[in-house]
Amino acid sequence: MFRSMHPDVAKLVEAGRIPKPLGERLSQLAPGNFCIHKSFGAGKVIDWDLPAKKVTIDFEKSAGQTMELQFAFQKTEWIAAEDFRAKKIEQIEELRTLSKSDPLALVVHLLQSHGGSMTGDALEKELTGTVIPEAGFKKWWDATKKSLRESRLAAVPQKRTEPIVLRVGDRSPAEALVADFEAARDIKGMIRALEAIAGDIGAFENDSDALKRLLNDIDEGAKKAARVQLGQALQLVAARDEVIGSSKALELDPSAVRLSDLLLSADPTRLAEEAGTLPSGRQRAVYEAFPNAFADDWVSKIVQVFDRVGARGVTEIARILLERNAMPALVTHLRSAIARRALGPDALIWVCRERKGPSQEIFSADVGASVLNLLENDHLSDGPRKTSRLQSLLGDDKTLLTDLVAIMDINETRNFARRLLDCPVFGDLEKKSLMARIIKSRPETAELVSGANQKRPDEILLVSWESLEKKKAELDDLIRNKIPQNLNDVKIARSYGDLRENFEYKSAKDLEKYLGHRRNALDKEINNARGTDFKGSDASKVNIGTVVTLADSSGKETVMTVLGAWDSIPETKTVSYLSEVGKALVGRAPGDAVQIRDEITEAMETLTVKSIRPFNP
User: Fold this and answer.
1) Partner of 305 at 20 to 30 A CA spacing, among 15, 368, 489, 583?
2) What is the pTM of this model?
3) DSSP designation for 481
4) What residue ranges do the domains of the chain occupy?
């Protein structure tokens, strides 16, 4: 704490020219004192000019910096000469020597200077390149961290982004860890405290009673959280099980809540959403509890959540099913979901990546169609994109497309290549790159990128006037309202501080990226669009602006209307000419057979064109 007032300043205070609090703050910036600046780092005051209201400070990152006193008041904070950051300015060699002779003392001193705690990332930033050479820091910190844990002078978490906390007072390390748990105000705090206990279980070797006191609190916390915070309840119980597994002196009471109890009481949809947010290790613990929770029905239950738990969950569930010889159930589920085009992006990514292993018998032409279908649907949706990783996989995995077309017949290959060329998700360069791989494997597809077909991605889009006006209104709303609002949200979120841990800033920037992509897409679509009322369409064959009557083998008739690129209305069986069904119908004449995918089962069925008439607006 700063107490000494500079003599020159004391005279001004005694004369009543400045108030005492201002005199104390001004004295902190007297020559010889130290301060910290958010951008320039630590500094030592070299000189001041009180009449001119200026101060000169030698900062770590800016020597001889002259500042207005008022600005210095606002932007700097006084630190004691004993502070680690102050010593870096004038006693750096002593700190370097200490880092070699007594690294624990160095770290303790650093933590004390930061109020008793700082993250691993912040510690590395403070030491690297100044006290510890950058090239040797990792080796030094690994050894020091191990010694710090053994000494129990501080609680050292596994993650670099969580705080290293200095232990103070006369409590034993075990008591300090238990006190941290008891002081936790929410489930997240309890989980962090349990992780610290699991990481330092040796502290309880002769004090297991301290741990036993926690079990009841954990039980109560998990039961309460399960009703509104299922994911955190799962984490808490899993963290407790890790502690029990690490301790030879602890046993779980038969009446204690278990992961299987939480699974049984959870709604499957909510369970999938909550479990998918957990770290991989905790997710695995949750999925391994399925047999205890659901007995003989566990495989069907875990398969139901497979494609709704995110990338980590998909991998963990597949691994568990493989280990327990239960893959046939997953294969059956995936084959059905792929045929219905109902598989999510994370599950599709797994199928593609494991095509030489567990998913080999599922990997088929339908997988390629499912990938493009998902990319197209996501592109047309209004929310943030969910298939970016799936799109990246097509480009990053150099053999994926080659393996896909290798198992297709020539017609399937041409249809797949044509859909890829028409897919609005890919840019021109990306399409050329992907098509080059397909052509190399199947040269007969080269004709698709020659001649007139080369311009297909940029063809004129025929659309109804109504759908064109909707697109224009969406673009107008984007430019006038959503983009300006988002820019303001980014500005506000930036003011909240550290951008690395600023969720609001990250969310606003993600939305900014999405809005930019959406604006570009709308611009391109509107520029390529040509409005029409579909009057006078040629009905000798199925064309844009025609109504076609189809019949199945039993004679049951279905009436479909083929309209513009943006005019699909499933409820009235109105389809876009660019859709899968639209492409299958256009060009067909009465009497022709056509294969169309059933809307409900997603299975292919053969229908016959009975009649065609012009669409009447």
Assistant:
1) 368
2) 0.55
3) I
4) 7-80, 91-168, 326-457, 461-532, 546-614
